[in-house]
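note to self: dont lose this again. the chain is below, predicted strucutre after it. 93 aa total, dont forget to put it in the shared folder this time
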Amino acid sequence: MIFKAKTGNQDQRYADTVATMRELAFSKYNCQDFIAVTEGEQEIAISYWLSEIDIQNWHQDAQHAVAQKWGQEKWYSSYCVEVVEIKRRYGFG
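---
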């Protein structure tokens, strides 16, 4: 899953919520990996999940719904979520 956003006012509550949501995704919804970077006002996060059902359940989680609301009201001026499938993977090292 790819999350792309234009950041707004990201305060300490944002940082605390991100940590809580990250732990919830790993412990309850089978998130396998989560990488996020911010450059200027652009944030991108890539997460890997076992199934699309896990992603749907994560999206519908009550705590996550509250975090999404705060994100829309305070922390982001816009965002986009893309659910993608890896067709091929290769690497080095």
